[in-house]
Amino acid sequence: MQTWDHKLPIYQQLADQLAARLLDGDPAEGEALPSVRALASRYLINPLTVSRALQALGDEGLVETRRGLGIYVRPGARERLRSAERERFLNDEWPQLRARLRRLGIGPRQLNWEE
Amino acid sequence: MTTKRFGALLQREWMQHQRGWWILMATPVVVLLLVAIFGDVEITLDAEDDTSVVRTPAAVLLAMGSLGGLAICNLALAWFSSLVQSPGLARRDLQDRSIEFWLSLPIGHAQSLGATLLTHLLLLPWLALLVGAAGGLLVSLAVVTKAWGLAAWFTLPWGALVAGLAAMLLRLAIGLVLATLWAAPLLLVVMAASAWLKRWGLPVVVAVVAATGFVLDRFFDWPIVAETLEIIMRSAGRAFIGADRDGPPHLAHVADAEGATQILRALPSWAVEDLGQALQTMLSPVFVVGLAVAAAGFALLVLRRSRGA
Amino acid sequence: MEPLIQAQGLTLRYGRKVAVDDVSFTIPKGRVVGLLGHNGAGKTTLMKALVGLLPSQGSLNVLGVDPARDRVALLERLAYIPDVAILPRWARVDELITLMSGLHPRFSADRARALIKRTSVSLADRVKSLSKGMVVQVHLALVAAIDAQVMILDEPTLGLDVLSRKAFYEMLIDEWCDGERSVLVSTHQVEEIESLLSDVIMLNEGKLVLSISLEEMDRRFVALSHDPAQAAAIAAAHPLLRYRVQGGSAALFDGPPPDSVQALGQRMRPSLVDLFVALTRAPEMNRTQG
User: Of A3, A4, A41, which has the smallest distance from its Cβ to C170's Cβ?
Assistant: First the structure.
């Protein structure tokens, strides 16, 4: 069974997981996400929490609700996600990684970029 | 509460107890069948001159004995078995805690208890009665054939036998209800005590009744307890059969076919009279008060069940 | 919208002992409510009162009726599993299905058979020959075959292995989370069930300690993970609970601690288990309501 970590609220963790899948194109832009109940069943989460997660994705402009039809991935969502991830990496993760590389004495030439 | 639900309650009783019941009902039949096949039936009669004569009874007498005897035997066995088990019945489902399962279903307490009592005290004995009669038929075949040959069985006065048997069965079936009503106060008080006090129920009731009787008798010269108990037991027995003070037509001095057939033909009308007498006995204060006590006992059972056991 | 269950000032006694003391809560439709409490906290007593098996003081309304007065009518629309496997041991599984079809107007025999087929139990098995876990599975299948509006389950997963528990959680979501029904479930497996809950009610020694939605809980309670070195500063802000997490210490606050304290650590989500421990082991009652 899926265990949810202690850092973020569960709905946020689900939102992040769904966002990660969006980034991989699942589902593609313009397509519908699985229903709330389907997601609840898949992840074993209360449907109300699933709704909160979808709400969070909606707040970030990644998905939109089409009355009577479901929740659809907005066009441009992937790009938006990618740039958000890029921002996060460049602002948070990269400085830490760079500091570590410096500590280990690894310069750009030792990094194998081609792989 | 619908009939369907009550029917399911009855079905539950059958499902839970049918194995024991079949054994209870079949055993007398099997035993008597074996006795019939391997034994001999003779009766000792007192002749007019104070000597004893041993004779093989007439075929019709043998048939009457088998049919009636087994029917009564089965009925009594089943009824007494239920009576004896009734304290346990009040505490059934407690040990495996399945009472909590039954309590989680939409069934009323009174209906639940009523179904149990109805099945064990009336439906089972009635069934036993029929099984006994059917078994009696088989035994009569064995007994009559053994004593007088197969032809004798076929030439039995079946018209009169069937009529007589039917009358007796009906009398006994109704008598069962009346006897149960007579015994109801004792039965339900013991059951209620068992439900509330568990293993101490029966001993406590016996002790209280005995003590009360003793005190009232010794210190107030009022032996009401013993008298009441005696009335109840006598009336219950008579309610079954033999309420007529004159008793059933005497079979004791009859060994021949003629006399036996005469009695047989008189049975239906005698049964009706007997029933009338039994019903009349019910118009007594002991009976009415007894019913009130029985109702109180039932109410206590319902109360206990509503508290979770 | 009428709530499915409404309790106001509910007090329940066992003889002279007060098992549940002045408890008030509401359960609307479409919720999965976890009832948490230590053994003897009053969970089972509360559930018994909700299904009409105990007389109660105060006001109690379940599906529009007083449970004690209209028990039979209530049980037609409320399914109740009282504690561990209590199925009659003499019965066969198919006999139980037959009986329930006759006794319960909203029971579907086909549904029950389909659910039991998914387990390793066969219809011809007698209850007394089944292992405890299998009996629980049968009982859950029977109850899941009832079309009820409220489900009250007292530790339904006791004795079940992980796979069976998972199957139960799946069934709970698939069958009972349609927005119209509500489930009240008590369990000791708090961590496992947390993601399935929408609300939680915590009892401690008969008193209501918390009645809150998980959404509200996320907002109201603040958990801070911090360096052990900051312990004194954190403690000065009077957290509900201090405990250890992987790689450090943590503290749980009711309401946001002052910014200076928050800066000392990193905000985490308040886990239900930690909150439960925090609220039910303090010697003086931390009585709060959501």
Answer: A41
**Whose CA is closest to C31, among C151, C179, C173?**
C179
Is B103 in Cβ contact with C53 (below 8 Å)?
yes
- Answer yes or no: are the C-beta atoms of C153 and C82 closer than 8 Å: no
B103 at interface of C, judged by CB pairs closer than 8 A: yes
- Asked if residue A51 belongs to a domain, the reply is yes
Number of B to C CB contacts under 8 A, please give it: 70
In chain B, residues with a C-beta closer than 8 Å to the C-beta of C76 are 106
In a domain, A111, yes or no: no
What is the average pLDDT score of chain C? 88
Beta-bridged to residue C213, according to DSSP, are C199
Residue carrying structure tokens 């499902």: B15
Inside any domain, residue A115: no
Token digits of residue C176 = 């009972």
Number of domains in chain A: 1
**Chain segment C125-144, per-residue pLDDT in tens:** 999 999 888 888 899 999 99
Question: Nearest CA to C142 among B57, B101, B131, B171?
Answer: B101
What is the mean pLDDT of each successive set of 10 residues along chain B, which is 309 residues long?
A: 88 94 93 83 62 71 84 91 91 87 93 94 95 91 84 83 88 92 94 91 91 87 84 85 58 65 82 86 89 95 85
Question: Please, where are the H alpha helices in chain C?
Answer: 43-50, 71-75, 93-103, 109-117, 132-144, 162-176, 190-193, 214-220, 231-236, 259-262, 272-280
Element (H, E) at B249: none
Q: Which of B97, B106, B107 sits opposite C86 (nearest CB)?
A: B97
Q: Which residues of C touch A46 (CB under 8 A)?
A: 32, 173, 177, 195-198, 214
* C169 chain-A contacts, CB cut-off 8 A: 1, 44
Nearest residue of chain A to residue C250 (CA atoms): A6
* Cβ-defined contact of C104 to B106 (cutoff 8 Å): yes
Q: What is the DSSP letter of A90?
A: I
Chains touching chain C, criterion 3+ CB pairs below 8 Å: A, B
Contact A46 C32 (CB under 8 A): yes
The structure's pTM equals 0.85
B189 is in which domain, residue-wise? 3-306
Beta carbons of C90 and B16 less than 8 Å apart = yes
Q: Model ipTM? A: 0.88
Whole-number pLDDT of residue B251: 55
Domains of chain C (ranges, CATH numbers):
5-205 (3.40.50.300), 219-280 (no CATH)
Q: What DSSP state is assigned to residue C211?
A: E
CB contact under 8 A, C51 and B104: yes
The CATH number linked to A87 is 1.10.10.10
- Asked if C189 contacts A44 with a C-beta cutoff of 8 angstroms, the reply is no
Strand order in the sheet with C17-27: C17-27, C5-14, C57-62
Closest CA of chain B from C113, distance in Å:
19
- Total domains present in chain B: 1
* Chain B residues within an 8 Å CB radius of C81: 104
**Does residue C99 belong to the interface with chain B, where contact is any CB pair within 8 Å?**
yes
Distance CA C198, CA C178 (A): 13
Kindly state whether residue A112 falls inside one of the protein's structural domains: no
pLDDT at C290 over 50: no
Structural domain including A102 reads: 1-106
